[in-house]
Amino acid sequence: MGALQKLFAAHGSDYLQQFGEAMPVVHKKVMAAMVACRTPHAGALLCGCAHCGQPHLLARSCGNRHCPSCQGRKAFQWLARQLERALPTHHFMLTFTVPESLRAFLRSNQRIGYEALFAASAGAIRVLAREPRFNLGDQPGFFGVLHTWGRTLQYHPHIHYVVPGGALCSEDQQWHAASPGFFLPVHALSTIYRAKFRDAIQRAGLLADIPDTVWKTAWNVNCQPVGDAANTLGYLARYVFKVAISDQRILGVDDGQVRFAYTKPGSSRRRTMVLSVNEFIRRFLQHVLPTGFMKVRHYGFLSPSFRIPLAQVKARVQMAHGFAARAVNTELDAHAPTPMVCSHCGGALKLLRVMRAATRPSAA
To answer: Out of 19, 234, 274, 331, which residue is the most buried by the measure of CB atoms under 10 Å away?
Structure first.
């Protein structure tokens, strides 16, 4: 049982007694799933060895996307798919953040707010990429990942986009490459991003809930050249399926307090933060996403619905680079999960049956 699971098992019921009536249902479901994970309450997996036939009964995981014990294999599978789809060209990572004064609104209106963040930031990239002065095509392609936490579990919503360095042009049907060191101006992106977000919130009828100072503040957008896509995808893979805090960072839970490790941006020195159990749980749960919300989204020629197959896009990139584009590194060994093997002979295990539990526990 991991540190986070132990914490919820020991203190979840007390938290529910104090705050349960005001808690969103999805928060209660996450707590209950994590407490049950890999226990008899979650059921079991009946597997058989493909080599010797020995049966094995394995604890079943909850599969909840906010459970730190259930995300490693998903991250590996996602990374494998993205590396297969990556274009043989240089890439950029664009990060869109929001002013601190907007965070309370987003925390209270997560589904509407996060949808507006995606629409506004992706829309800003598309609008600016089409401007003739940047000599790009009018059809960029990219994908974004929503993060909501900082290193001390504070609420800090932002979106990372991985963008191939160029775009398709609908007029000549060719790939137009961007400079390796520059994609789009961040100040212009910031202005468009802020305006589009305001328009989205106005359409939702919630503009009066946001302080006027938000629209007078510069919204931070960062654009960083990252070279080959592999390193950036490997970095993001750890975060796409990562939860707000890992078990390894929790140093101890005693006397009603949680001690966990963190580092400040730009520093490698390990620090320790101490929070009350209730405050720690509150901070963790504020990063639980609305039910069914998609935190990874693809746009333009990286979208599954784009009219030109990705294989043809790759071919046009290669033609534009004179077939000298460096192949994408698809080495996955460092990210591969440990396979399940038979404890008797080492053979691979094959799933035979999922055995569900008759009952499931509450959050504690």
So the answer is: 234
User: What CA–CA distance (Å, rounded) separates 52 from 344?
Assistant: 8
Residue with tokens 């100040």: 187
Greater confidence (311 vs 78) lies with 311
3-state helix, strand, coil in the chain (%, to 5): 40, 25, 35
Indicate the residue type of 235. Answer: Y
Task: Give the Å distances, CA to CA, from 38 to 2, 32, 276.
Answer: 10, 12, 27
Identity of the highest mean pLDDT range in 36-40, 115-119, 346-350: 115-119
CA–CA distance, 357 with 135 (Å, rounded to integer): 59
Cβ distance 7 to 277 under 8 Å?
Answer: yes
Order of strands, sheet of 44-49, starting from the edge strand that comes earlier in the sequence: 55-59, 44-49, 349-355
Angstrom distance (rounded) from CA 296 to CA 151: 21
Q: How many beta carbons lie within 10 A of that of residue 18, not counting itself?
A: 11
Nearest partner of 300 among 126, 156, 149, 129, judged by Cα: 126
Dist. CA 300–CA 179, nearest whole Å: 20
- Are 199 and 127 within 8 A, CB to CB? no
Paired with 142 in beta bridges are 299
Looking at the DSSP bridge assignments, the partners of residue 45 are: 58, 354
219 near 244, Cβ under 8 Å?
no
CA distances, 21 to each of 25, 28, 285, 341 (Å): 9, 10, 15, 45
Mean pLDDT score, 268-286: 95
d(CA 168, CA 158): 27
Q: Which residues pair with 275 in a beta bridge?
A: 258
Q: Map 92-129 to HEC letters.
A: EEEEEECCHHHHHHHHHCHHHHHHHHHHHHHHHHHHHH
**What is the percent of the chain with per-residue pLDDT over 70, rounded to a whole number?**
89
- Nearest residue to 37 via CA among 4, 11, 10, 12: 4
Q: For residue 166, which of 189, 136, 142 has the smallest C-alpha distance?
A: 136
Query: 43, 41, 57, 61: which is closest to 356 by C-alpha?
Result: 43
Q: CA-CA distance, 12 to 278, in Å (whole number)?
A: 9
